[in-house]
């Protein structure tokens, strides 16, 4: 039992140590606003797409495609999105706050924090096929659902611009990285034919840059002051995000007989804290950015305990 607890702490603590480091570096003005903006652009436009391309290109989806897993990942995200919106509609009165609440409750930081956790748990820099499969479908879904809820709650009566939504998805660097890697995966190009050493090494360098830089940026952008004015809704969204979803999806995945890797990935998809994009997209579309920021901050703090506890339970029952 103690061994499982120590394992859980060793897996989760490095992530939060880097985030805390980012927070204090920003507070001490070691990291400036302009640096963070540039670093975020580098991460989003270059490093992360390179990692997603590499992981997708080297994954054999034909041997690991599981429709039940995919149904749980996509269907579960959609169902929770609807349930959170219904809750927000009846409990939260201000439309702009409803959009921010729903967005923060359903959209997890699967790529930046989730990938790091999976790598730490499995003890490898290579992500399992289930993780990449979830990326290919859940990331576009997050964008679609976010645009729907924020358009309707922030602009009552306004129609959703389908072309604009599709353009956002297709041009998203993360999606581009995944799509670029799929032909390499399905045709076996990357595994059967060695890429030139210089190119492969460069892509590896960029991929390795992703996790530490992302965690430091998340910590640096954490703003504690955004919590107090929306405390009840913020805490509720975090409970929905970190506790309710994994508490339902993980037992369901186990009951349906999914593989250990699939159960682990579903735990990560539904149990990681709210994504940084919750604040960025909510603000861009006229939602309550303060509530969105508060949800991110509290969910990150709470996740130190919920993720550690969840990993401990998965370790105890033999999933990891």
Mind explaining what this structure looks like?
With 320 residues, this protein is mainly α. It has a single domain (2-316), classed as Na+/H+ antiporter like fold. 79% of the residues lie in helices and 0% in strands. The chain contains 14 helices and no strands. It has helices at 2-27, 33-57, 67-91, 95-106, 110-122, 129-154, 162-171, 173-187, 189-192, 197-220, 231-255, 260-271, 277-284, 289-316. Helix 4 (95-106) packs parallel to helix 11. The model has no long low-confidence stretch (mean pLDDT 83).
- N-to-C span: 14 Å
Structural class assignment: mainly alpha
CATH architecture: Up-down Bundle
Write the element-wise H/E pattern from the N-terminal end onward: HHHHHHHHHHHHHH
The proportion of residues forming helix, as a percent range, comes to over 70%
Mean pLDDT: 83
Summarize this structure briefly:
Helices cover 79% and strands 0% of the residues.
Q: How is this fold's topology laid out?
A:
Blueprint: H1 2-27, H2 33-57, H3 67-91, H4 95-106, H5 110-122, H6 129-154, H7 162-171, H8 173-187, H9 189-192, H10 197-220, H11 231-255, H12 260-271, H13 277-284, H14 289-316
Helix pairs in contact: 1-5, 1-10, 1-14, 2-8, 2-10, 3-4, 3-6, 3-11, 3-12, 4-6, 4-11, 4-14, 5-10, 5-12, 6-7, 6-8, 11-12, 11-14, 12-14, 13-14
């Amino acid at each position: 039992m103690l061994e499982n607890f120590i394992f859980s702490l060793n897996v989760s603590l490095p992530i939060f140590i880097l985030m805390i480091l980012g927070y204090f570096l920003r507070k001490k003005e070691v990291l400036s606003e302009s640096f963070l903006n540039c670093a975020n652009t580098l991460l989003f436009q270059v490093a992360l797409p390179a990692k997603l391309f590499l992981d997708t290109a080297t994954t054999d989806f034909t041997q690991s495609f599981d429709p039940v897993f995919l149904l749980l990942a996509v269907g579960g995200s959609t169902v929770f999105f609807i349930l959170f919106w219904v809750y927000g509609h009846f409990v939260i009165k201000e439309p702009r706050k409803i959009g921010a609440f729903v967005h923060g409750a359903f959209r997890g930081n699967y790529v930046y924090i989730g990938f790091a956790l999976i790598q730490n748990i499995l003890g490898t820099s290579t992500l399992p096929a289930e993780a990449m499969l979830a990326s290919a479908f859940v990331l576009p879904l997050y964008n679609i659902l976010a645009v729907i809820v924020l358009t309707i709650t922030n602009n009552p009566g306004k129609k959703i611009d389908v072309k604009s939504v599709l353009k956002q998805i297709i041009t998203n660097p993360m999606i581009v990285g995944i799509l670029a890697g799929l032909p390499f995966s399905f045709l076996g190009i990357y595994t059967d034919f060695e890429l030139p050493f210089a190119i492969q090494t460069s892509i590896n360098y960029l991929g390795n840059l992703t996790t530490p830089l992302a965690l430091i940026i998340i910590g640096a952008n954490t703003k504690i002051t955004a919590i107090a004015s929306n405390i009840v809704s913020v805490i509720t969204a975090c409970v929905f995000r970190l506790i309710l979803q994994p508490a339902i999806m993980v037992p369901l995945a186990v009951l349906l007989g999914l593989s250990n890797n699939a159960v682990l990935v579903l735990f990560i998809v539904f149990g990681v804290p709210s994504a940084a994009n919750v604040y960025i997209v909510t603000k861009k579309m006229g939602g309550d950015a303060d509530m969105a920021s508060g949800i991110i901050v509290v969910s990150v703090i709470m996740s130190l305990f919920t993720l550690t506890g969840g990993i401990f339970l998965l370790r105890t029952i033999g999933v990891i």
